[in-house]
Amino acid sequence: MILHHYALSPFSEKIRAMLGTANLPWQSCITRELPPRPVLAALAGGYRKIPVAQIGADIFCDTRVIASEIAALSGKPELALESADEATQAYANATDLYVFMDLLTASATLTAGRKMLASMSIRDFIGFFVDRIRIGSKAKVKARNPRQAKSRVLAHLAATEQRLQSQPYLFGQQATHADFSTYHSLWIARDVAEWSALKDFPLVMAWMDRLQAVGQGQRTEVSAEQALKIARDATPRAIAVEHQQDARIGKRVSIAPSDYARDATVGRLVGVTSTRWIIARETPDLGTLHVHFPQTGYALRDVAESH
After folding, report:
1. What residues are paired with 280 via a beta bridge?
2. Which of 183, 206, 222, 281 is deepest in the core (most CB within 10 A)?
3. Of the candidates 244, 214, 260, 230, which has an alpha carbon nearest to the alpha carbon of residue 53?
4. Helix runs in the chain, H state only
5. What pLDDT sits at residue 29?
6. Last residue in a domain, options 170, 198, 213
7. How confident is the model at residue 123 (pLDDT cuts 50, 70, 90)?
8. Number of domains in the chain
9. What is the pLDDT averaged over residues 218-245?
């Protein structure tokens, strides 16, 4: 697996930590904090969220789908969100979205700003915030004011502390997808922003330390050029016949997130499972690519055929 990511990306940290628990070998391909990202545009079309994963000519968008691939590669089904019961899935989805947004607001510190500035040029630093403001203005999920956000975050932390009084992980004796959905936004608050309020929750801090103690798997570096060559030289993996029965198979469609960063990827629908859509993109430089999206949190629309 190649992971296209950058150091301070919280959702990338979610996957990096999961790769540690899975103890998988993976290749790191560093991308920019904001568009333009020509390599990812070539691989995933209009999709602009980070991280993106790649296995040959198969491209995986959104941490739900990436986690499912990690679960399959490692033989740890508990890392796939679809393996959880409905209540746990609802918890993970809400934490990934609403708690994440509240934590970004509540834990905004000068320390986080300094670390971001140290990781990019001044021009990109300014561009990053302009870009995020643009995303926020078009998002269906709006950030709360700082006081509301902090209140909700403290309630979330208290509930998480309570869960951890009787078990080492949020839903039992082993880490599941829900742990990582909770972890990544707290990582931003503790390890990047150094938000002092977290010190009042020692069980949460110890749980984060347990997740980090296993490391981030077996990481090696790969260049953007190497990642593109791998995609160019590969053929997308076969799609099972039972996943080609949807009436829309073969139609030209667009798929986009339905919450924020709602830029669409266009292609031909070639696979539909119970949890994901797969579209084929025909590219002049890389040939045929299959791009995988989760159904939850995404909208699929028909696109008129061009003549």
Report:
1. 268, 290
2. 183
3. 230
4. 10-22, 38-44, 63-74, 86-94, 100-106, 110-119, 122-138, 146-163, 177-187, 202-213, 224-233
5. 98
6. 213
7. confident
8. 2
9. 97
